[in-house]
Amino acid sequence: QDEEKWDFVLVSSIHEVGSEKEIKRKKFLDELSKKGFTIKKIEDKKLFYGVRAPAHIFRKYQWLLRNPDSRLQNPDVHHDVPVTTRIRLVNFILQNTVTPDLENLRDLVKKKVFEATFPLHEKEEVREFLKEKWARWRDIFCLQPIEKIRCYFGEKVALYFAWLGWYTYLLGFAAVAGLVVFIAGITIFNSSQVSKEICEASNTIMCPLCDQKCPFWLLSDTCTYAKVTHMIDNEGTVLFAMFMAIWATVFLELWKRQRATVVTNWDLYRWDEEEEELAMELINNLQHEPRKYQHSYFRSTIILLLVLVMIAVLIGIAHALVIYRVIATAFFTQSGSEFLREQANTMAVMTGAVLHYITIVIMTKVNRRVALFLCDLEKPRTFSQRENNFTVKLFTFQFFTNFSSLIYIAFFLGRINGHPGNYVRVAGRWRLEECHPSGCITDLFIQMSIIMLLKQTISNVMEYFIPWICYKLRKNKKRPKKRSMMLGEEEEAEDPCKRQWLSNYRLNEVYISSLFDEFLEMVIQYSFTTIFVAAFPLAPLLAFCNNLFEIRLDAIKMMRLYRRMVPRKANDIGIWLQVLEAIGILAVIGNGLVIAITSDFIPVQVYKYTYSPCATENSTDVDCSTGYINHSLSTFRIQDFEPYTKVPEMLPDFARDEIKECRYRDYRNADDYSYTAQFWHIFAARLAFLILFEHVALCVKLIAAWYVPDVPQSVKNQFLDRKHNNLCKELSMMEYSTEV
């Protein structure tokens, strides 16, 4: 029965006899035969070649990489090689077998000599268990069988699922905290003094929001918007941002412990990837010379410059989105529909967010091409080094693609647009957007929620249904019609391999970067969950719900819709750990900036303790933020409008000549429009808060990292015992040999 187990299947179209492709294919298969491979050919609409490696290959592998501990005990015992190791080794030999024309398997696939190469999904016990107990929607809240996943897909995939499960488990705590902060925001929804003042300001006349058709407006018109803003922008959010900065650190520290435990159970804690690769090279070709390490400063400089150019392009795209919003606002305010005129700003932000999502989808494809091109320029030494370089570059590009627009809204919107009578304009015509009088944080909230919801729903639907539809179409197309039996005709026995190979061939192709894509998706989501969480406390909850589905979605895809992945050995999640640590530091900086700059938290505090009735008149019976709104608006004289601005029609209840001035959000003097002392006071407070917040948060992160050891004591003790026992054995063997 074991004789019928095949390690790999190569699929080829049926070429004409004597054609170039047929000769190339024959040469490649001859090379495999020379190495002792058994090859079985089955003909259908395509040619299928099953290959099985000779046993001596695996014996060499076991001998070269045997555990130093077991060398002492009994060097002759042969354990069975795990299926994952078999597949990995055979894949390595197939990829590195070169024909006399110096072509390897990758070249032959490019030249369409072979169409596909894949290991088989076997009808084995582990697979049935995983299909029933793991790759099902109903197991959404169950623990994952990581050990079984490792036995079937190898360590790298198992570590991905272990990491994703751990991340989701800890997200649960962050999600609860975020929900509590959000609900607390809703309950004090109506009680905020600042939003009360906005709702009661029915005679505060505000300056028009655009140049041509915009009227003067009353501050009280934006009552609802102000309430929503103060639902997000309150003291609770500051604490939550601190909490998330600490959460990010604790999550990574606990993951390091989790990983150490898992990997020790697999006996891979001290595993050396380089040694493994050299051993496989030697098994494949005894004359192999290892590629030496190289480093060229010239090449690194070129790559660095190209990366900077690409980042500049991505920032340029963010600028284009800003200009779109500016022009869209102008367009909506001049439209015929009253609804569009009133909601011009919100409409521009929402359509801008959808457009941003579309650019993310398109630029993801472009970024991948560019990152691959840069990796080829770099000429990395090994596959894992190439993967690390690719990871860092693609993540950097994706980060700017996803976040440049958010960074603009958070830190620049409404801060660089000038003031009435002297606006900053795009192309000398369109005014830059302004923030709402109650702060910019709602714009950030809208943008974050739209992008996160779109990204998670659309991406997941596409990720599942595209492979599912492809698989169904292929399955139906390939279904053979049963031939009607002629009288007396014997039905030929169908080769059992044929059905299995065909069913595997119909599954979707697995790409070398499939697992990488899953990681990238999760790490970008992790960035959304931590970096701007002060503006969107529901981010962890959305991420948590998404991940519960994501785990099962990936499981179903791997088990039922895709061909079997080539297992890879690993003892950690690779360079992703450094990427996650970098995001943790960015999260501290990002949240500090959001609270210091985007939110109204600092101006309100400065007002309370310096300018409010509590501070000036010692009156304790009033709310300390009373009068804040009036204090935060500056006055503009209508006669100073630019000639380009058409002074709008008046509000219906006011006489035309009555309005001599309007208010706008800034701290400027009424006579020469220069900044007031309050502006500099608040500016200093913002900087002081930022420095304080970041230092405190980073100190807490460092303390948390020190407090939680990376490696559990049990793992350290296990290694200690092992070393002790080995040394004792060595000693007793030495004494025994001297006695003899």
UniProtKB/TrEMBL annotation:
A cellular component annotation (GO) from this entry: plasma membrane
Native source species: Nyctiprogne leucopyga
Coiled-coil segments on the chain, per record: none
Subcellular localization, as worded in the UniProt entry: Cell membrane; Membrane
InterPro entries according to UniProt: Anoct_dimer, Anoctamin, Anoctamin_TM
GO molecular function: chloride channel activity; protein dimerization activity
UniProt cross-references to Pfam families, sorted A to Z: Anoct_dimer, Anoctamin
Protein name: Anoctamin
